[in-house]
Amino acid sequence: MTITEAQQKVDDWIKTYGVRYFSELTNMAILTEEVGEVARIMSRRFGEQSFKESDKNISLDDELADVLWVVMCIANQTGVDLENALLKNIEKKTTRDSSRHINNEKLKK
Known about the structure:
This protein has helices at residues 3-17, 24-45, 60-78, 82-97. It contains four helices and no strands. It is 66% helix and 0% strand. The longest helix is centred in the N-terminal third of the chain and has 22 residues, at 24-45.
């Protein structure tokens, strides 16, 4: 599935099952919450924090998909073509950083 197709699937789902989009501000708050869930999993799985018994079955896959879902909702609401935006962003980063990381002594081992 392309990013454009994914944005369309989210839009179709919202219109079929979700009644309407939440406001942009509400979606921004939901995005913050979902990113927090990802951070919680990452800090426990890869950091020093331990899981609570109730959190042991929490899925990083599902939480990352939730983040992507809300990002697509915000993009749909604001007229952003994420596929095009990502391609432009990769081009920008390539132009800006093409030798920056390669020449960074901190990244060499």
